[in-house]
Amino acid sequence: MGSTRAVFLPLLLLAFQSLILSCCSASPKGPLSLIENVYQLGDSTADAGNLIRITGSNSEDKVSARLPYGETLGKPTDRFSDGLLMVDYITRALGLPLLNPSLARNRSFEHGANFAVGGSTVLNSSFYKAKNVAVPATNTPLRAQLQWLRSFLNSTCKSLSDCAERLRRSLVIVGEMGSNDFFLSFLQGKSIREYRNNLVRSALASLRREFPRATVLFGDYYGGYQHILRNGSHLGFDRSSRLKACCGTGGPYNVNISASCGSPGVPVCPDPSRFISWDGLHLTQEAHRRITEFILDQISPGLIRAT
Ligand SMILES: *[C@@H]1O[C@H](CO)[C@@H](O)[C@H](O)[C@H]1NC(C)=O
Ligand SMILES: *[C@@H]1O[C@H](CO)[C@@H](O)[C@H](O)[C@H]1NC(C)=O
Ligand SMILES: *[C@@H]1O[C@H](CO)[C@@H](O)[C@H](O)[C@H]1NC(C)=O
Ligand SMILES: *[C@@H]1O[C@H](CO)[C@@H](O)[C@H](O)[C@H]1NC(C)=O
Ligand SMILES: *[C@@H]1O[C@H](CO)[C@@H](O)[C@H](O)[C@H]1NC(C)=O
């Protein structure tokens, strides 16, 4: 294929690097304006309402559908933050509407879909079961989400060539993803060393299988996070609470898993935009905005080269 457009994927893997996958081609007229569809795969850092629609997910999983989640937007939007996520800032930068969660019925998927599900791992559940590590009820690892993407394209493209044409004008974002793989093993006292290579190899293999003609690039989500952590006060974050959750209580980090954000009586800071961490696990809208800025700056040259 000639020039490329489309696809990048920040994917949080063990080194907390992002993985950017750049695909396909088109006539060069300003790379970003040529992207018409975005497909997101990932975990709660990108979930815009899939987890709450999966039966079997428990009420704790549904906090994203209740205040204070979403408070910066004036209402809960099923996102695990006070407001928008990185994927929202990316679609906004492309001039596209926010992506609807793929499990929502009767919504528009004209410009792509969000397949991310909170709690998802990169590796198959079978990998964990074999190691006696309990897995979340929602069995939606990267591989399952890729299958959703495949079926989605199969059921919405008019033909193979229509699909190819659409992917040429698409950005596929994978990640941040991989942190749940670590949590699972860590919380259950298993060694995490062996997961490391498995994660990267498995994620890359899946992606290369799925997008054989795509270019895979790495972007640095963790670097973006470090950047705002180190340089927080220049960026408007409150220095004294840079490691504290805005929503939460107790301990040096304002986090207590027995009294987490969204539980009765758990306080919320007056101004989430001064905080990096929203609830101890997820970041604030402002942190998402800043990290997206950082990542877009970083990957733009690669994207343009690929266009
Ligand atoms: C689905 O969306 C259409 C158009 O927005 C609307 O007319 C219809 O009532 C909706 N159906 C349901 C079940 O929400
Ligand atoms: C994941 O599971 C599927 C089917 O259960 C299998 O075909 C695939 O090879 C597995 N992938 C990995 C990376 O283990
Ligand atoms: C695409 O969908 C058709 C009709 O539902 C089905 O028969 C076919 O197996 C699907 N192909 C793929 C590659 O999923
Ligand atoms: C922090 O931000 C300021 C203002 O944007 C910038 O000049 C400086 O280079 C940044 N420092 C680091 C370490 O990123
Ligand atoms: C965490 O919350 C539980 C339940 O509210 C409480 O009993 C416990 O003392 C809290 N721990 C800390 C360190 O604040």
Automatic annotation (TrEMBL):
Keyword tags: Glycoprotein, Signal
Highest taxon of source: Eukaryota
Residues spanning the signal sequence: 1-26
Pfam families assigned to the protein according to its UniProt record, in alphabetical order: Lipase_GDSL (PF00657)
Keyword match Glycoprotein: yes
Entry-linked SUPFAM superfamilies: SGNH hydrolase
GO MF annotations in UniProt: hydrolase activity, acting on ester bonds
InterPro entries: GDSL, SGNH_hydro_sf
Family: Belongs to the 'GDSL' lipolytic enzyme family.
Record protein name field: GDSL esterase/lipase
Organism for this UniProt entry: Trapa incisa
Classification of source organism: Eukaryota, Viridiplantae, Streptophyta, Embryophyta, Tracheophyta
